[in-house]
């Protein structure tokens, strides 16, 4: 009878530990930075872990054609955001021991 209570107490402690670690991990991710590049490397974008664009670097050689420039910037931003999301998912998976908790990411 008391064995189940022990397991429940253990699970509650694990949940509390995950909650505490989650907060610090979210803080770490928010200040982390991720880079994305267009396929040709002409555009580089730096984003933070909280999905904010911090910097865009454009190779001066590609400023002549606005349509191409827009396409390259879009590709670089999407690459940077994907890198940030993948890093966040990996951190959360590590934090939860692979347990899928809906709503984390």
Q: Write the CATH architecture name.
A: 2-Layer Sandwich
What general outline do the C-alpha atoms trace? rod-shaped
Approximate helicity band: 55-70%
End-to-end Cα distance:
37 Å
| Low-pLDDT segments | none
Q: What is the SS-derived class? A: alpha+beta
Strand/helix succession: HEEEH
Instruction: Round the Cα radius of gyration to an integer and report it.
Output: 20 Å
If strands are numbered along the chain, what order do they take across the biggest sheet?
1-2-3
- Whole-number total of structural domains: 1
- Provide mean pLDDT, rounded: 83
Which key features would you list for this structure?
rod-shaped; alpha+beta; 105 residues; 16% strand; single chain; 2 helices; Ybab, Chain: A
